[in-house]
Amino acid sequence: FFFIHLALTMSSENPFGFEFENFQRLLDIPMDISPYNYAATGTGFAIALSVVGAAWGIFITGASLLGGAVKEPRIRTKNLISVIFCEAVAIYGIILSIIFSGKMEDGDGTNFTDTDWYSGFALFNGGLTVGGCNLVCGICVGIVGAACALADAQRPELFVKILVVEIFGSALGLFGVIIGIVMTTQAKFGG
Amino acid sequence: MTDTGDATAPFFGFIGAAAALVFSSMGAAYGTAKSGVGIAAMGVMRPELVMKSIVPVVMAGVLGIYGFIISVLIAQKVAPTDYKMFDGYAHLASGLACGLSGLSAGMAIGVVGDSGVRANAQQPKLFVGMILILIFAEALALYGLIVGIILSGKSSTQ
């Protein structure tokens, strides 16, 4: 805590100062990183977290599906729908990350306008939104898909009913995509 | 560093929008998954009760919609120019309020939905009790939505 206090109170004019002069200086810390870095990190989050969610869901569903199909091979083909629902989450991620990466154009590199900062922050948080929502959506659909496969193995009429629960779960990834697009419509570099 | 000194404000504003949706989605996903597993397990013995037991899943989905509403409200207000630090902080608070309360409500709905649908399969009189508990859990997210709407309506042009 002492070092934080020291860092906050030191300034160029008064290196040993002990008065808290300018709180604004603390809040300018996000601007020490280039907006291009924010944009690229956001694009990375969009694809990476979406794929992690899709993969997680697929292995949860796949393991239960394969285990249940040992005794009931008829559930194999129908329950691949759960795997496809999880895959859709990864497709949302790749579409959004291609859109985001198309917004990053080469600019000056040193003089950043307010629009550049806005675009960097928008792409960073848009990518976090898309990636985070797709991550949890993929895990949710995976868990419900596993339960659906095992229920289908015991009673065939349960498949469609548990599929309704999966559809509710996959709506979460769609929300993330919509908000990601809404956030980044006005993001423009190199203005 | 910059001319206006407010260039960091969209950083906080957009974090609010992201937090609103991501945390609400986490709560909704937990509620959907936990209740869904309970429904699938219960449906093996009592398949006629499955459609009635989808209620916890619907309530968990509504949490995602709450986060979506706040996120749209915030994302449309954040602008490259004429966006002060006050707006950024207000939108950060709005997003965190709605998102984290949605996360907690989703966890409550998940656990209650799971045990509720399993208990309902064994004792049909428990359906109304399960619905009552789910409504109390949903109200938590509603409080977060109300506070989030109030906070996102605050702007510095006064």
Global shape of chain B: elongated
Largest sheet of chain A: none
Which protein chains are joined by the largest interface, and how many residues does each one contribute?
A-B, 50 and 54 residues
Number of helices of chain A: 7
Assembly state: heterodimer
| SS content category of chain B | mainly alpha
Radius of gyration of chain B: 19 Å
Taken as a percent bin, the fraction of beta residues of chain A is under 5%
Per DSSP E runs of 2 or more residues, the count of β-strands of chain A stands at: 0
Alpha-beta content class of chain A: mainly alpha
Q: How much helicity do the residues of chain A have?
A: over 70%
- Sheet of most strands of chain B: none
Low-confidence spans of chain A: pLDDT under 50, at least 5 residues?
A: none
% residues in beta strands of chain B? under 5%
- Terminal CA distance of chain B reads 27 Å
Q: Round the Cα radius of gyration of chain A to an integer and report it.
A: 23 Å
Short description:
Chain A is an all-alpha fold and 191 residues long.
